[in-house]
C-alpha cells in the first residue's frame, strides 16, 4: 500500500494533491455537462440568426415553406406537430390508463400481468425506424382501406375531409400512439401503485364495487400522476422524428384533414437538413429552435406536475 | 375471470324495496364486469401490434439473412445482391465514438454530484440539465452535431454522428451512474474512511468497484438506445455505399440504411431494409437483455 496516509508526510502530501486534482477533474466534467445544454441552444441560435432576422415572428404564422424562393413559414408544421401529438394522446391515454389499471389490479395472475408489462416495455425498445417500416407495410394499407369509410361518414367534419391518402396525419398519429404508450403506462402505473391501500380498503368497506372504487377513489387520487404522464408523453410525441417522417407524407401545405399528408417540425428537419443550403439551413435551425423550446417547456411542466403528484400521494399516505 | 365484489345492501331496508335493491345490485355487478372485460381486452389488444412488428421483421428479415449480408457492400438502387457490412461497421464505430465521449463525462460528473458535493448548486444544476437532456428530441442532438461539426468541417462524417450520439447517451449514463453510486451503502464508505483511506482511495477502491455492475447496465442501455437511433445520424453521418476508411467522411449506419431503403421503389432494397431491421433489433434486444443480466447479478 504505497499511499498509506499515515506513513510519511511526503506520501500524505502526494495523496492530497492527487485527491484535489481528481476533485477538480470531476468538477470540470460537471461544469461541462451543464454547459452542454447551453452549447446546444447556442449552436442552434447562432446559425438560426439570419432567418430569425429575416422572418421574425412571422416565421410561426406564415403558411408557405418554399426553399426555391427562400420563403419560410413554419405554421403548417406547427399545426402538424400539435395535431399528430394530440391525436396520438387521444388514442394512447385511455389505452395506457386501462393497461396501467390492468397491471396494478389483480384481474389475472401476476405472471400474466408481468408478461404484459414486459411486452409494453419492449414496445419502448423498438427503434423508431422499425416502427416506420412496419407502418409503411401495415398501417398505410389499413388507413387507405378504412379512411374512405371515415371520410364518407364524417367528411362534413374538416378533420375527416377526403381525399384519402395512406401517407397521412392519421397514419403518423397511430404509430405515435403506439410509441408513447409505454411512457403513459409506466408513469400511470406507478401513480396507481402509490395510492395507499387504506383508501381502497375504506372504499370497499362502505360497499363500493371494484370499479366504483377505481373511478371514484383510485383514479382521482392518481390523477396528478396520470396528468404528468400525459404531458411527458406529449413532449415525446412532439419530438419523435423518424417513424413520423416515414408515414406522414411530409407535405409543406397546410391541411386540417387527418386523412391528407401533413408535416411536423421534427419531420421537416429530418427531410431537409441533408440537402439544405444557405438561408434554408438557417430557417431549419430556427425550426429546430422552436422544437427545442417547445419540448423543453412541455417537459419542465411535466416534471413539475410529476414532482407535485409524488408529494400529493406522499401526503395522502 | 371477473372477481366483482357484490355490494352489501344498506342497513334498514324495508321489504318492499328489496326487489329494487336487488336489481340495482345486479346492475352494479354487471357494470363492473363490463369494465373488467374492457380493461383486460384492451390490455391484450396491445399485444397485437408488437406481435405484428416482431412477426413481420422475422418473416421478411430472415429471407435475405446470410453470412454475405454481414460482409458485403449494399447494391446500387435497382440491383440485387450484396449486404450491409459497411452499415454495421458504421453503427459500431459511431456508438464507440459516442461512448468514448459520453462515458468519462457522465461517470466523472456523476462522481462529483454524488461523492463530492451532492447538495451544491452545481450538483443540482447537473441533475436538472441531465433531466432536461433526456427530454430533448433525438433529432436535436443531430442538429447540434450538424452545427458544431458538419458546418465547421464541411462534411458529414462518422465523427459528427458520434458527437450526436454522445449527446444522446450522456444523460442516460450520468443518471444511471448517479443511481448506481447512491446504491452503494454508506457503511462501506465509512468503513473505508475508518481504516484511514482517503476520499480518492474510497471512491476508486470501494465505491466504484461496488457500483460497477449498475454503471455497466446504464452504459449498455445507452448503447442499445444509440444503436437504434436514426434521427441524430441521418444528416450528420449521412450515408455511404462504401466501407468507412476514415472518420471524416460520410458513413453508413444500419438505421439510416433502413430509412433510405424503405422509401426506394425496389423490392430487393425493401427486403434488405427488413433484414437490417432484424439485425438492428437483435443487436438492441441482446444489449438490453445483457444489461438486465449484469444488473440482476449485482442484486444477488
Structure description:
The complex is a heterodimer of chains A (317) and B (300). With 317 residues, chain A is mainly alpha-helical. Chain A has ten helices and two strands; from the N terminus they run αββααααααααα. Chain A has helices spanning 9-55, 75-104, 110-125, 128-154, 169-193, 197-205, 210-239, 242-247, 265-272, 279-316, and strands at 65-66, 71-72. A two-stranded antiparallel ribbon of chain A has the order 1-2. In chain A, α2 runs antiparallel to α7 and α5 packs across α7 (210-239). Mean pLDDT of chain A is 89; it is low at 1-11. Chain B has two domains: 1-42; 63-299, Orthogonal Bundle (MetI-like fold), CATH 1.10.3720.10. Chain B is 75% helix and 0% strand. Chain B is built from twelve helices and no strands. Chain B has helices at residues 18-45, 47-64, 67-71, 85-116, 121-135, 138-153, 158-182, 186-194, 199-228, 231-234, 254-262, 267-299. In chain B, α7 packs across α9 (199-228), α8 (186-194) runs antiparallel to α9 and α11 (254-262) runs antiparallel to α12 (267-299). Classes of the chains: A mainly alpha (317), B mainly alpha (300).
| Biggest pleated sheet of chain B | none
The whole-number mean of residue pLDDT values of chain A reads 89
CATH superfamily of the largest domain in chain B: MetI-like
Shape verdict of chain B? flat
Number of DSSP helical runs of chain A: 10
Order the strands across the largest sheet of chain A as they lie in space: 1-2
Largest two-chain interface: A-B, 91 and 94 residues
Oligomer: heterodimer
Low-confidence stretches of chain A: 1-11
Structural class by SSE content of chain B: mainly alpha
Spatial shape of chain A? globular
Q: What is the helix tally of chain B?
A: 12
Descriptive terms for the model:
heterodimer; A: 317 residues; mainly alpha; MetI-like fold; two-stranded antiparallel sheet; 10 helices; globular; disordered N terminus; B: 300 residues; 2 domains; 12 helices; 0% strand; flat
